[in-house]
Design brief:
Elements (H helix, E strand, L loop, with lengths): L1 H15 L12 H11 L4 H14 L3 H6 L2 H8 L6 H16 L6 H5 L6 H11 L9 H10 L9 H14 L5 H14 L18 H5 L17 E11 L2 E6 L10 E2 L2 E4 L5 H13 L2 E14 L4 E11 L10 E4 L1 H6 L4 H14 L13
Helix pairs in contact: 1-11, 2-3, 2-8, 8-11, 9-10, 9-11
Bound molecules: iron/sulfur cluster (SF4).
The site of iron/sulfur cluster has 15 residues, from helix 9 and helix 12.
């Protein structure tokens, strides 16, 4: 069975492999490292749009190590999960300091942001090390192929998938084997519907034989509801400038720029919280904060509703600092902001444009 799975999969892959930018650099560990970090929780089609541009700007681990955090975040902008970019940057600094790239799965595992799956993918593709890379795609395929009827995302089901992946990955072409499973999960044994008619595993597949493939993988327990939080955010304007502030390092959207804001707990009055914030940041204002728009953003662990306000400062812009800047529309374009913040800025621009001759404070690339 093991030999048949490998043989069938590799034959299929040699005819059907996707042409992806990182597959043209398979022996280049740095290029594979960048690709695997970008691909964490992000679709292949999205990564395609960023990958070459990032490598053009940071062609080697040394260039990345020398770059400023702000520049790395700017080139990551739109990909989301910015902690990945920060970890990649930190990892590059460590590697540059040591003077050589990681030589094994174990050395990759020591770098920030690299878990078993990512280390397995990089080590097998770039170093030819026989290590499995079992992500959600692989778990789904194995659940169907071996008719595993327990939840494969946790506990015993997860361990069984890892055991199978470890037993199946070959000594020869381990990187191609792992990539073949990724492609099969994306092109044939997809989440919505297994296309068994064109699948190389069809004669071996227990799920298809029993007629339960489309019911697998099974999920245990009800899906947890994702909580919603409300953030009141304010555009404080002075002439043709708007005040932006930088988030602290370490948390969500770490180090990125955004409009001043306050997370609202139940019972907190948005305009009151923002008036205090505004007074602290910009002194006296003309009138009260005016609610002008709304934007929404979904994260893996919560949904965010932004209530967007605007106000004009009574005086001109105050001086800039490392964490606060009064920026024009052109300067705003150069700051690193999250995808959520882009939505906020776009909603604000749409709301203000017809009524006020406000600067076009954001243009999505
Ligand atoms: Fe998935 Fe069908 Fe292939 Fe089985 S035969 S692995 S269910 S696509």
């Amino acid at each position: 069975m093991r030999a048949a799975i490998r043989r069938r999969l590799m034959r299929w892959y040699d005819r059907n492999r996707r042409d992806l930018p990182w597959r043209r650099r398979e022996g280049d560990l740095y290029a594979q490292w960048v690709a695997e970090i970008m691909l964490q929780q992000t679709r292949v089609e999205t990564v395609r749009r960023y990958y070459d541009r990032f490598l053009k700007r940071f062609p080697s681990v040394q260039t990345l190590a020398r770059a400023r955090r702000e520049s790395v975040l700017k080139h990551w902008e739109g990909l989301g999960y910015y902690r990945r970019a920060i970890n990649l940057h930190e990892g590059a600094k460590r590697v540059a300091k040591r003077g050589r790239l990681p030589q094994s799965f174990d050395e990759l595992r020591e770098l920030p942001g690299i878990g078993d799956y990512t280390a397995g993918a990089i080590a097998s593709i770039a170093l030819g090390e026989s290590k499995p890379a079992a992500d959600g795609n692989v778990a789904r395929i194995f659940a169907r192929l071996f008719a595993i009827e327990v939840d494969v995302t946790r506990g015993a089901g997860r361990r069984e998938v890892e055991r199978l992946a470890g037993a199946l990955v070959p000594q020869k072409r381990p990187g191609d084997f792992n990539q073949a499973l990724m492609d099969l999960g994306s092109l044939v044994c997809t989440p919505a519907s297994p296309n068994c008619g064109v699948c190389p595993f069809r004669p071996l597949c227990e799920g298809a034989r029993r007629g339960i493939a489309h019911e697998l993988p099974r999920r245990s327990g009800a899906k947890r509801a994702v909580p919603e939080v409300t953030i009141a955010t304010i555009a404080i304007r002075a002439g043709n400038r708007v005040l932006m502030q930088r988030r602290d390092e370490g948390g969500l959207w770490s180090g990125l720029w955004e409009l001043p804001n306050a997370e609202l707990s139940s019972g907190t009055e948005a305009s009151g919280a923002l008036a205090d914030l505004c007074a602290k940041l910009a002194g006296r204002a003309r009138g009260e904060p005016l609610e002008v728009a709304e934007a929404r953003h979904v994260l893996t662990h919560r949904r965010v509703r932004f209530r967007i306000f605007a106000i004009d400062a009574a005086r001109g812009p105050r001086s800039n600092s490392r964490v606060r800047r009064w920026v024009t529309a052109a300067e705003l374009e150069k700051l690193s902001v999250s995808t959520a913040q882009r939505k906020v800025l776009a909603a604000l621009e749409r709301a203000l444009e017809p009524a006020v001759s406000a600067p076009p404070i954001n243009r999505k690339r």
